[in-house]
């Protein structure tokens, strides 16, 4: 983020004694109507139409309020111009922040307001306005907290649902087994891929390529600026420009190509299995076309899978299936009693690792 300091303008303030509004922070150190000194706590930013520029402004620091007599003095004054007291530990004028603006200030003014009837009327009117604004703000805050609260509850709820388990007793009702032999065939292949993603295989050749979008990249695309007002604390403020570089997506193109070659590809499986202990597990018969040769349409074995499942019955006839090593699987008796951890929310999901023989 880059910053640029711009022009200086007068803050505005309201006289608390005669009620004159929109007095100028630098020009009117005293109320031109009643002569009361400017209270720095009553300063606020003017509206866009009422801005008054300050030419050749010399900043000497935020104003100081004399602790002895309450006189408002310039930031570089060492002694009070009214009573001569030293200003070493004088109170610095409060700085108005841009988003806080007038409303919050008026609220504070009211709480420490004086005793005059005129003043009170002024602030009563002011308070009504503030009251409305405050209620609006509180409503917005309450909504934000409510939304955050609901989101937090949902996250906790999901975590509990996923993690909370209870132990249940289950009975063995059956066995299953299955075995599979995977067979590959040596084939010609054609495949589309990026020019630098060479597929594996024999005699792989890159053919025709076309340009195609592969990704996007971020490129700078001008600046986004907003103006912020900074209270100088001496009855003036300056406008500061905050700028941020914007970015846009730009497509990145690359060569998308046709590749050809020869390789082993999955062709078929020889499967065996039963939903019982018998027949005992066995591998299927495999006969491979021109076995041992690396030429088109010849076959080879590509791997074997096997699984041995014990079926359990739980509460409300729920069924659970858990895998076992083959040696253990064939010794698990029907009707034997076990315990297992089951999710409380989704009772159909059992944690097979927690199985224990009773
Ligand atoms: Zn006045
Ligand atoms: Zn003084």
Describe this structure in words.
The structure is a single chain. Helix 1 packs across helix 2. The protein contains three helices and 14 strands. The longest helix has 47 residues, at 117-163. Residues 100-118 and 132-136 have low confidence and may be disordered. The strands form three sheets. Strands 1, 8, 9, 10, 11, 12, 13 and 14 form an eight-stranded antiparallel sheet that branches. Strands 3-2-4 form a three-stranded antiparallel sheet. Strands 6-5-7 form a three-stranded antiparallel sheet, with no helix packed on it. The chain starts with a strand and ends with a strand. A hairpin with a 6-residue loop joins strand 5 and strand 6. The chain has helices at residues 101-111, 117-163, 326-329; strands spanning 2-10, 12-13, 23-24, 43-44, 64-65, 72-73, 91-92, 165-194, 202-231, 236-274, 299-313, 319-323, 337-343, 350-357. It folds into two domains: 2-137, no CATH class; 174-357, no CATH class. With 358 residues, the protein is an alpha+beta fold. The protein binds zinc ion (2 copies). Residues 15, 17-18, 20, 31, 33-34, 36 line the site of one zinc ion.
């Amino acid at each position: 983020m880059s910053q640029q300091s711009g022009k200086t303008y007068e803050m505005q303030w309201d006289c608390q004694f005669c009620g004159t509004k929109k007095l100028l922070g630098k020009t009117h150190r005293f109320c031109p109507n009643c002569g009361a000194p400017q209270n720095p706590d009553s300063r606020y930013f003017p509206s866009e139409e009422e801005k008054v520029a300050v030419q050749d402004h010399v900043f000497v620091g935020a104003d100081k309020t004399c602790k002895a007599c309450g006189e408002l003095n310039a930031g570089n004054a060492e002694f009070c111009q009214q009573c001569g007291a030293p200003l070493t530990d004088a109170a610095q004028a409060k700085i108005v922040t841009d988003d806080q603006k007038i409303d919050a200030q008026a609220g504070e003014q009211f709480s420490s307001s004086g005793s005059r009837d005129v003043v009170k009327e002024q602030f009563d009117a002011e308070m009504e306005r503030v009251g409305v604004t405050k209620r609006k703000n509180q409503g917005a805050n309450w909504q934000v907290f409510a939304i955050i609260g609901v989101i937090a509850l949902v996250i906790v709820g999901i975590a509990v649902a996923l993690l909370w388990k209870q132990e249940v007793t289950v009975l063995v009702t059956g066995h299953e087994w299955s075995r599979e032999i995977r067979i590959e065939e040596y084939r010609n292949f054609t495949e589309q891929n990026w020019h630098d993603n060479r597929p594996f295989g024999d005699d792989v050749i890159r053919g025709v390529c076309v340009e195609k979008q592969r990704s996007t990249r971020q490129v700078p695309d001008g600046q986004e600026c907003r103006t912020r007002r900074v209270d100088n604390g001496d009855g003036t403020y300056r406008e500061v420009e905050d700028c941020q570089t914007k970015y846009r997506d730009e497509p990145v193109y690359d060569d998308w190509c046709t590749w050809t070659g020869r390789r082993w590809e999955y062709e078929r499986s020889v499967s065996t299995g039963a939903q019982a202990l018998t027949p005992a597990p066995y591998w299927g018969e495999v006969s491979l076309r021109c076995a041992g040769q690396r030429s088109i349409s010849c076959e080879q074995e590509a791997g074997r899978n096997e699984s041995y499942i014990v079926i359990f019955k739980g509460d409300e006839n729920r069924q659970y299936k858990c895998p076992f090593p083959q040696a253990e699987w064939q010794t698990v008796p029907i009707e034997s009693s076990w315990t297992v951890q089951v999710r409380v929310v989704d009772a159909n999901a059992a944690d097979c690792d927690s199985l224990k023989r009773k």
